[in-house]
């Protein structure tokens, strides 16, 4: 980290370069970070020239000391600087056993050589300067474009070009600066890089070289040490011995002074040398011994003692901080426990990262500032002085105390955390992977010695029972909570940067915490994981036992009732089903617990238990309701039968026949009532089933039941009232019968007179009106005859003499022939109209022939009946003549409906007969009659015969063409088959 300060031209300040070395931490570093850290540490030991030898004051920035590139290159060569030495590393992996450079030169640039501050002085912009650009063969003239003050990189471009290059300050020379100072700057950077690279090589080889115990102590030395000490002490001595001699060997290999790399002299060694010299000289000067003691000890001032005391108090507070939640009044879900832990740990981490550092720094600053200048001057601003001060040793002592407190906090907290979660259930740790829960569901063989920690709810899923929290998340989340806190504790800053405010420190100086791979942490993590992974076995096995209740849990009550209904079970079978549901519910109450403890888990089974019991209750209630509805339907059916009997008896008679029907029905009523009483007795037995289950009938069903039991008495009582009512109705209908008889006689006389008058009509032009009237009169005759039969049956019921119907029968026989004449004539005329008026294509010739024949036969059968009536006989003969006159039309219609007639034939017919319109089979036959086709029968027959002959010839040609086509097709198929069989192709 670099910091540069600049002043005015009269009293410029010197630029200071300080290297900050961070303490080791537990975070893994990449090879690049290790390389950079080693370089920084080495650079810290590089000796710098005095400020007066580096800094140069420039009063005139327009003065050109060197403007020629060759002259600058010559000066650099005189100082041992060649263009190839300024090249950047290629980026390829470099063998550390070689002499190749692998660190960028600009990393070792000494900014104290800078001649000006580019942020305050803008004279360098667009200035012409000398620079060495890739491929680093010679120095060239460039224009300076931009500057990055934070990194000391400059952006330049060649003259006459637009391409820009980003180069470090060592590759750029301004004409106004001293070329020898510039050369010294490059020389200092080259020497610093060489020292850093050699140090990295030395440390790398010391750490990674394989010696095969070549530098181990000799056997005699080994035996001598083992006689005086233990094996553990000898192992420590052996490692130190080997390290020392390896360093000597590698230092001589690299031509380094390895003793300097192995041991560096400090002030404590000098004090020890003075004390030893005083003892050897047998000096009795207490002042000298006291001076040596004061120089050696840290507790030479009461403020230091009090500062350490306050530091110790803060560390004791830290040791007692609650880092995890290790106590709860009741079990809680894992999610809630994780949230509480997060809140607790966030609060504690905030205290460690802020409050602890601030309070410790405050105590140290308050007490050490009282001492002032000297070994404990916290206002020191130079690293060289700070390194040899007691203050550094004091801060290191505070660092160790804080790290010790932090370690105690983490070890105690994690031990308490694991002890709280692992609540001493040894039965869990002895389980095998194939464990199954064989005991009952109430008693748990895994009761822990301490209360359960976590709350779970057992629920039922579509596939299988499950818990409200996935059990697999416990072995995953609980160790992660512990590891996250341990990781967070790696980022607690030291007090050094906040206390020593006049020195610059790196931003990653943290207290050394407990590592994730610490043996104690690893053991605790393994204990936690083993316990919770084993605890999943009984947890899953217990949930598996509830899979037997899945079918009950997801049973649809409506579908269950529908299945029972479709099975058409009897009431006794439904009774057994209800009793089974009650027994199963009671079994659930005695076999399924409200809750159970399995190791660290308190499992709430009550919701699932209540759901299962509630489902049994719903099924029981549904069966009782179904049985109630079934009985309701049966009872309603019985009541409906009683109501039917009552309604049938209480019908208001509309005639004497109706009264006799009701009386006949009432004779069977006592027997019907007895049957219904028997049915109701069997239904009462089914009602007793509901009473046996203490089921309260709805008010409507209860009322319906007792209404059904009371109905027989009501029906028998109603019979007496109905019989009394019928006696009065018989007298009323007898009086009505006398009136109906008189009206019937008058109707017979009226229709006889009308028919006698109507039969004198003979107008053939009004055949339609005559047929309608004839049909109406015939219907009236039939109605009177039917009415006469009804009145005679009533006369019999009233025990009166029957009415004579002979006149009506005679009138019907005489009128029958007259009706046949006019109806047959009218029907024929309607048929003839349809034959003539409809298109010829839609006329059925067989229907026409059949209609003519039936009409002719019907009329011929009527001729003997009208021989004594000349007028009617004339009418009959007229219609026979009309029928006979239509017969010749059949031949014309048959010829014209020939299917072989085409448009050319119709045109020929129209031309020969003299028809101007277009003819076809879709034209009505009346058109052909209008044009006199009956008079040209021979012409029509000749055209039809010709059309048939042409059709036969055409069909013969088609047959011949088809035969030829088939022969050609057979020939082509045979030729294709022959080609496929040829082998010489």
List key phrases describing it:
985 residues, mainly alpha, SH3 type barrels, 32 helices, 5% strand, disordered N terminus, coiled coil
General description of the model:
This protein is mainly alpha-helical. Among the domains are: 140 residues, SH3 type barrels (Roll), CATH 2.30.30.140; 246 residues, no CATH class; 138 residues; 86 residues. It contains 32 helices and 9 strands. Helix 1 crosses helix 4, helix 13 runs parallel beside helix 17 and helix 25 packs antiparallel against helix 26. The radius of gyration is 64 Å and the shape is elongated. The N terminus is likely disordered. One of its GO terms (biological process) is microtubule-based movement. GO terms for molecular function: dynein intermediate chain binding; dynein light intermediate chain binding. It comes from Anopheles culicifacies.
Low-pLDDT residue intervals, each spanning 5 or more residues: 1-51, 258-286
Structural class, by secondary structure, is: mainly alpha
What characteristic shape results from the CA principal axes? Answer: elongated
Strand order of the largest sheet: 4-3-2-1-5
What is the count of DSSP helices, taking H or I runs of 4+ residues? 32
Estimated radius of gyration = 64 Å
Report the mean per-residue pLDDT as an integer. Answer: 77
Give the N-terminus to C-terminus distance in angstroms: 91 Å
| Count of β-strands | 9
- Biggest sheet features: 5 strands, antiparallel
Strand content: under 5%
What level of helicity do the residues show?
A: 55-70%
């Amino acid at each position: 980290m670099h910091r540069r300060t600049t002043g005015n031209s009269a009293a410029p300040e010197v630029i200071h370069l300080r290297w900050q070395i961070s303490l080791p931490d537990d975070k893994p570093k990449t090879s690049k970070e290790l390389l950079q850290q080693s370089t920084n540490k080495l650079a810290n030991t590089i000796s710098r020239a005095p400020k007066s030898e580096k800094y140069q004051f420039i009063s005139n920035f327009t003065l050109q000391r060197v403007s020629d590139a060759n002259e600058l290159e010559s000066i650099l060569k005189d100082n041992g600087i060649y263009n190839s030495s300024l090249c950047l590393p290629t980026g390829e992996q470099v063998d550390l056993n070689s002499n190749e450079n692998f660190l960028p030169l600009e990393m070792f640039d000494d900014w104290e050589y800078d001649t000006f501050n580019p942020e305050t002085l803008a004279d360098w912009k667009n200035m012409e300067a000398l620079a060495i650009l890739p491929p680093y063969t010679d120095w060239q003239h460039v224009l300076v474009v931009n500057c990055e003050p934070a990194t000391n990189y400059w952006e330049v471009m060649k003259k006459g070009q637009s391409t820009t290059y980003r180069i470090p300050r060592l590759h750029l020379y301004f004409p106004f600066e001293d070329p020898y100072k510039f050369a010294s700057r490059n020389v200092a950077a080259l020497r610093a890089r060489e020292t850093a690279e050699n140090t990295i090589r030395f440390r790398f080889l010391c750490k990674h070289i394989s010696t095969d115990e070549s530098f181990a102590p000799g056997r005699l030395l080994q035996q001598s040490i083992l006689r005086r000490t233990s094996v553990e002490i000898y192992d420590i001595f052996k490692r130190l011995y080997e390290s020392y001699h390896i360093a000597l060997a590698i230092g001589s290999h690299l031509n380094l002074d390895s003793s300097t790399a192995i041991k560096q002299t400090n002030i404590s060694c000098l004090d020890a040398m003075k004390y030893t010299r005083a003892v050897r000289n047998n000096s009795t000067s207490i002042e000298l011994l006291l001076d040596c003691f004061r120089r050696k000890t840290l507790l030479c001032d009461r403020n230091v003692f009090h500062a350490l005391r306050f530091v110790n108090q803060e560390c004791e507070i830290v040791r007692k901080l609650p880092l995890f939640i290790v106590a709860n009044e009741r079990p809680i879900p894992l999610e809630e426990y994780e949230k509480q832990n997060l809140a607790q740990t966030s609060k504690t981490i905030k205290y460690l990262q802020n409050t602890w550092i601030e309070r410790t720094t405050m105590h140290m600053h308050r007490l050490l500032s009282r001492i002032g200048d000297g070994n404990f001057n916290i206002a020191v601003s130079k690293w060289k002085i700070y390194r040899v001060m007691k203050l550094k040793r004091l801060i290191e002592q505070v660092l160790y105390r804080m790290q010790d407190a932090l370690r105690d906090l983490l070890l105690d907290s994690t031990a308490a955390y694991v002890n709280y979660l692992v609540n001493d259930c040894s039965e869990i740790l002895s389980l095998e992977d194939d464990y199954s829960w064989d005991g009952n569901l109430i008693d748990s063989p895994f009761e822990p010695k301490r209360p359960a920690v976590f709350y779970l709810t057992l629920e039922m899923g579509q596939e299988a029972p499950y818990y409200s929290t996935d059990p697999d998340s416990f072995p995953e989340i609980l160790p992660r909570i512990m590891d996250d806190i341990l990781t967070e504790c790696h980022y607690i800053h030291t007090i050094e940067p906040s206390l020593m405010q006049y020195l610059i420190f790196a931003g990653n100086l943290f207290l050394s915490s407990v590592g994730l791979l610490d043996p104690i942490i690893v053991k605790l993590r393994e204990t936690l994981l083993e316990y919770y992974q084993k605890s999943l076995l009984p947890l899953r096995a217990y949930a598996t036992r509830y899979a037997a209740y899945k079918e009950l849990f997801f049973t649809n009550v409506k579908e269950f009732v529908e299945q029972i209904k479709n099975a058409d079970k009897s009431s006794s079978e439904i009774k057994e089903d209800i009793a089974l549901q009650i027994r199963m519910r009671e079994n659930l109450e005695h076999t399924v617990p409200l809750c159970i403890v399995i190791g660290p888990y308190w499992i709430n089974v009550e919701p699932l238990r209540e759901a299962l019991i509630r489902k049994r209750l719903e099924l029981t209630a549904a069966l009782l309701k179904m049985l109630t509805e079934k009985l309701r339907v049966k009872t309603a059916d019985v009541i409906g039968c009683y109501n039917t009997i009552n309604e049938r008896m209480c019908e208001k008679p509309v005639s004497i026949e109706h009264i006799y029907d009701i009386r006949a029905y009432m004779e069977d009523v006592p027997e019907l009532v007895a049957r219904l009483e028997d049915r109701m007795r069997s239904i009462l037995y089914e009602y007793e089933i509901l009473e046996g289950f203490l089921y309260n009938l709805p008010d409507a069903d209860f009322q319906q039941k007792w209404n059904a039991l009371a109905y027989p008495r009501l029906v028998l009582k109603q019979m007496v009232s109905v019989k009394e009512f019928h006696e009065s109705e018989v007298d009323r209908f007898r009086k009505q019968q006398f009136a109906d008889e008189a009206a019937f006689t008058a109707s017979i006389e009226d229709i006889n007179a009308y028919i006698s008058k109507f039969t004198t009509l003979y107008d053939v032009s009004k055949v339609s009106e005559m047929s309608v009237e004839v049909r109406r009169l015939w219907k009236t005759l039939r109605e009177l005859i039917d009415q006469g039969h009804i009145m005679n049956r009533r006369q019999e019921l009233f025990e009166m003499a029957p009415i004579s119907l002979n006149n009506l029968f005679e009138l019907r026989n005489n009128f029958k022939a007259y009706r046949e004449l006019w109806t047959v004539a009218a029907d024929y005329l309607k048929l003839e109209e349809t034959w003539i008026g409809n298109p010829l294509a839609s006329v059925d010739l067989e229907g026409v022939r059949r209609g003519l024949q039936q009409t002719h036969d019907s009329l011929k059968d009527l001729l003997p009946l009208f021989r004594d009536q000349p007028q009617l006989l004339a009418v009959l003969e007229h219609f026979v003549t009309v029928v006979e006159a239509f017969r010749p039309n059949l031949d014309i219609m048959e010829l014209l409906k020939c299917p072989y007639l085409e448009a050319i034939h119709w045109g020929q017919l129209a031309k020969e007969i003299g028809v101007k319109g277009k003819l076809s089979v879709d034209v009505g036959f009346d058109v052909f009659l209008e044009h006199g086709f009956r008079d040209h029968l021979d012409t029509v027959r000749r055209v039809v015969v010709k059309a048939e002959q042409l059709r036969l010839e055409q069909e013969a040609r088609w047959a011949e063409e088809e035969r030829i086509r088939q022969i050609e097709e057979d020939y082509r198929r045979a030729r294709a088959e022959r080609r496929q069989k040829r082998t010489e192709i």
